[in-house]
């Protein structure tokens, strides 16, 4: 029987995996790394960038507050006045727990993985709102290029700290690039503004020993897959069914793998049942096949919004492995 790590690599290279990769099983997350705070349900917090996040009770996630009082970046043309990157901790004690955790992982079995969020695109709209960020790409392109470069340099500094302290094998990087039906911006605009940033960031990780880049965008982004390949993404996690995952595998499978095709919105809700989960898992596995595909909730982490859904999905994947391998 192949290890989790070996089975993933066989899947990614179109080789001979002996079972389906079971969601996030190959990633061993080191969550103790210093990072900006994010609220828990019912909380409102302000992070080091000055961004206020609120997670209302009864909702399944948090998001920045963008009224006039709380918006950090009020004028993109004066972004240097408003945007100040928080310092990256350098004290030994800030990294001690993460270093100890990483050193205890069996890297022959799992990939030591660091969770990085938000990404460059999300940072632009976290600072000033989605509407302002999208409009700024049209109205103030020079200032947006400058802001994106500033955010990229901050990411690179954080990446260096992660590599120096953790020596990760895998980076799980969040940046949602679309809605369920379309990308937020055109491929041409993505190429101009965001591709150069990600080529720098993901190139830096790859040049410094990181083996896997897993990019999370639980959205439509089929039109951006060529750029994902160019920037060095190994696995696109969060690929929704609206992308036509089987067609993407057929077209790009030798260059990138796809992790998802089990839409969280369809199975991860208050009235979920194991039968609903099993039906969606079977559809995904049979349609997408054994190579270049990892069946997974589109959720951006090894959890579910409602208790039991993630574990039930794993159980359904195990059953499909017995049937199809």
TrEMBL record:
GO BP: porphyrin-containing compound biosynthetic process
Domain Uroporphyrinogen decarboxylase (URO-D): 49-289
Gene3D superfamilies: 3.20.20.210
Single GO term (MF): uroporphyrinogen decarboxylase activity
UniProt xrefs under Pfam families: URO-D (PF01208)
Protein name as annotated: Uroporphyrinogen-III decarboxylase
Species per Swiss-Prot/TrEMBL record: Desulfosporosinus orientis (strain ATCC 19365 / DSM 765 / NCIMB 8382 / VKM B-1628 / Singapore I) (Desulfotomaculum orientis)
Lineage, broadest ranks: Bacteria, Bacillati, Bacillota, Clostridia, Eubacteriales
